[in-house]
């Protein structure tokens, strides 16, 4: 496909999910599809966490083939792109919408929506959303099934992951780089979550487990609960604590590249939100999802929709254990008991995590789906 | 202006200068406390139909419509004929009644509202609460009397609704036509 100009707008609401997804998408469109991409970010500081080489004071800078721009209140007059993405239903600058409407050639306007496994998603994917001024907007839904936009996945991701996991030294060297030297018999678990009251029960269970565990915790919102359980006032990256058979080590906030390698290194990954949730699935290891809580408990439908889809290939007993564990982690049930129950099925869960990943990799990835859809639309529009 | 979430089935929105009848509107939470509304639209000028989706807080321009009280006169295949108190009849096709069709049945006495655009009837609204009779349902399996346990039941026109476990064949029930939900068991309507 010929190179097109893309403008991706990202409004950072909280955490790093929005910017994590859009930065990943922007890089992939540029690197793998040769598209000219501008990424507009309203909070340069949030972007800086993911990309420490960036300069937050610049209004525009080129990184990894992407033009990263500060989306300021006083939005500059810029040439409208061929494809415009409002990520996660953010509101585009009014002046930009006006410029889209008056242009001779109308751009393709996409709302890249949140990831959900719910059944209604396929029925809304790529539906039009006609706007004033003759502008054509479409909703684009990522997803796990046929009829959705797929998941973000770089072309060589699985090749790199498999190569990494096949070489013991690769894991050891990476962990050493981030200051981690696990005992040979230790089970490695990564923990990335929002504040979570179920953490104490889980850590209690890990501490009394017969198998030693090294829990690796990248800097994030779970630290308050962790400090409470450990009985310490505050934490520093690199700090370690031993409680029974559980060793806890705090890590600095990791780059996306390093976080992938952490997921590939661990036997089990606790993740949250959208971006780390997807990356953990590509790691091919069993996972535990802390879903973003929504008003009126709407997140439970999303959690159960994914569980139903994911667990369809598990034995009934392993599926029940998986569901109980995820429910407990999200506030419904006894986390300690659920963890013990899940350990009885850990071999099946581990095997299945790889199968699930192999199944998902057969679907087109999100960036390719966006390029294909925009290519078709733009060729019809000319 | 109204938000997409405020635009209900059988209302008309002016979209890019064209009047579109909203035949169906489904509200869904998407993610992080945002929501979408999936709509089935019919263009009132050329009759074309489309499915669309909007952010729940997208602004839409409603078209003020004329309304008139009517009752169902008779059904003839796909044609539904309603009558106003002056004995004027208004004929609609089944496809025009999409959002209310599951609750329309021969002999119903509900006071409905015919909706007009440009002097032409375009749809009919039912009252928010209607009373219908159960023609078939399984016997209560669990003996639940709380009303929290639900089971499927069929109405006279074949529509299936979820009702309280204690409901039985020939019982009359109240239904909320906005979402098709069971409200409670009630008395037979008086003629």
Model description:
- The complex is a heterodimer of chains A (382) and B (191).
- Chain A has 382 residues and is α/β, with parallel strands linked by helices.
- Helix content of chain A is 42%, strand content 17%.
- Chain A has 15 helices and 13 strands.
- Chain A has helices at residues 17-33, 44-50, 94-102, 120-124, 157-166, 168-177, 199-208, 223-230, 256-265, 275-282, 298-311, 316-329, 335-343, 346-360, 366-381; strands at residues 5-10, 36-41, 60-63, 66-70, 83-87, 108-112, 136-140, 187-191, 213-218, 240-243, 246-251, 268-272, 287-290.
- Chain A has a 7-stranded mixed β-sheet with strand order 3-4-2-1-5-6-7, covered by helices on one side. A 6-stranded mixed β-sheet of chain A has the order 10-11-9-8-12-13.
- In chain B, the strands form 3 sheets. Chain B has a 6-stranded antiparallel β-sheet, with no helix packed on it. A 5-stranded antiparallel β-sheet of chain B has the order 9-8-7-10-11, with no helix packed on it. A 5-stranded antiparallel β-sheet of chain B has the order 14-13-12-15-16, with no helix packed on it.
- In chain B, a hairpin with a 2-residue loop joins strand 2 (12-15) and strand 3 (18-29).
- Chain B starts with a strand and ends in a 5-residue tail after the last strand.
- Chains A and B meet through helix 4 and helix 11 of A and strand 3 and strand 5 of B.
- Chain B: Residues 67-122 form the Translation elongation factor P/YeiP central domain.
């Amino acid at each position: 496909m010929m190179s097109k100009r893309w403008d991706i707008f990202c409004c950072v609401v909280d955490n790093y999910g929005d910017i994590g997804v859009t930065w990943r998408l922007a890089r992939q469109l540029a690197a793998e599809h040769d598209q000219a991409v501008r990424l507009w970010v309203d909070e340069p500081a949030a972007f800086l966490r993911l990309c420490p080489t960036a300069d937050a004071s610049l209004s525009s800078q080129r990184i990894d083939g992407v033009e990263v721009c500060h989306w300021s209140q006083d939005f500059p007059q810029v040439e409208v792109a061929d494809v415009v993405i409002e990520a996660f239903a953010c509101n585009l600058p009014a002046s930009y919408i006006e410029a889209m409407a008056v242009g001779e050639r109308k751009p393709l306007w996409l709302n890249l929506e949140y990831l959900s496994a719910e059944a209604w998603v396929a029925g809304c994917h790529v539906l039009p959303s006609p706007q004033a001024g003759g502008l054509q907007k479409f909703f684009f839904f990522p997803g796990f099934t046929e009829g959705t936009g797929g998941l973000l996945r770089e072309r060589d991701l699985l090749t790199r992951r498999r190569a990494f996991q096949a070489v013991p030294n690769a894991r050891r060297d990476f962990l050493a780089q981030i200051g981690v030297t696990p005992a040979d018999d230790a089970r490695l678990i990564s923990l990335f979550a929002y504040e979570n009251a179920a953490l104490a029960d889980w850590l209690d269970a890990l501490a009394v487990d017969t198998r030693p565990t090294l829990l690796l915790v990248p800097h994030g919102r779970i630290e308050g609960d962790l400090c409470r359980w450990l009985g310490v006032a505050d934490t520093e990256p690199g700090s370690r604590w031993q409680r029974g058979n559980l060793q806890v080590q705090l890590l600095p906030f990791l780059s996306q590249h390093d976080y992938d390698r952490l997921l590939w290194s661990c036997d089990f990954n606790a993740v949250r939100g959208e971006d780390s949730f997807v990356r953990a699935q590509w790691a091919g290891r069993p996972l535990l999802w802390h879903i973003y809580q929504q008003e009126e408990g709407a997140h439970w439908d999303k959690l159960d929709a994914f569980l139903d889809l994911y667990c369809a290939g598990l034995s009934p007993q392993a599926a029940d254990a998986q569901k109980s564990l995820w429910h407990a982690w999200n506030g419904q049930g006894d986390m300690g008991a659920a963890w013990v129950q899940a350990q009885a099925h850990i071999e099946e869960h581990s095997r299945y995590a790889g199968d699930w990943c192999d199944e998902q990799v057969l679907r087109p990835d999100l960036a390719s789906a966006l390029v294909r859809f925009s290519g078709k639309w733009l060729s019809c529009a000319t | 202006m109204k938000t997409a979430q405020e635009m209900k089935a059988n209302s008309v929105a002016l979209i890019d200068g064209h009047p579109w009848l909203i035949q169906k509107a489904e509200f869904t939470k998407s993610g992080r406390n945002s929501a979408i509304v999936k709509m089935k639209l019919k263009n009132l000028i050329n009759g074309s139909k489309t499915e669309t989706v909007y952010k729940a807080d997208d602004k839409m321009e409603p078209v003020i419509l004329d309304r008139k009280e009517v009752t169902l006169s008779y059904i003839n295949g796909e044609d539904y004929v309603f009558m106003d108190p002056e004995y004027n009849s208004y004929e609609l096709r089944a496809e025009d009644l999409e959002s209310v069709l599951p609750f329309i049945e021969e002999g119903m006495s509900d006071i409905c509202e015919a909706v007009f655009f440009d002097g032409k009837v375009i749809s009919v609204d039912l009252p928010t609460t209607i009373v219908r009779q159960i023609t078939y349902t399984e016997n209560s399996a669990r003996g639940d009397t709380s009303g929290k346990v639900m089971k499927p039941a069929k109405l006279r026109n074949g529509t299936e609704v979820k009702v309280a476990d204690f409901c039985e064949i020939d019982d009359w029930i109240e239904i909320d036509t906005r979402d098709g939900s069971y409200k409670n068991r009630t008395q037979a309507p008086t003629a």
